[in-house]
Amino acid sequence: MSKFTISIGKKTGIAYFPKHLRQEGFVGRVECLPNAFTLTLVRLGTSLTNVERSLKILLQDIELRRRHGEAQKRG
User: Fold this and answer.
1) pLDDT 10s digits, 63-72
2) Coil, helix or strand for 33?
3) CA-CA distance, 63 to 72, in Å (whole number)?
């Protein structure tokens, strides 16, 4: 999976999404599921079942990245 940076203007609060993300449907109104450390963006109309599936895949990716990072620190 890829990792992207989204720029948010301090004064305006306007966020810039890279073109490839906009092409995936992240334009106009988007639902947000925030907590203290993360923000999950969801295209409107996406079922909670699909959100859950997507988050499980993302968690697997995070675990792989974490393991790889820890292995590099030891190696």
Assistant:
1) 999 998 866 7
2) strand
3) 14
CB 46 within 8 A of CB 55: no
The DSSP call for residue 36 is S
22-61 pLDDT per residue, tens: 998 889 999 999 999 999 999 999 999 999 999 999 999 9
Start-to-end CA span in the chain (Å): 24
Are the beta carbons of 42 and 33 closer than 8 angstroms? yes
Q: For the residues of 42-74, what is the DSSP string, one character each?
A: EETT--HHHHHHHHHHHHHHHHHHHHHHHHHHH
Tokens of 24: 């995936």
Residue with tokens 């993300």: 21
Rounded CA separation 21/42 (Å)? 12
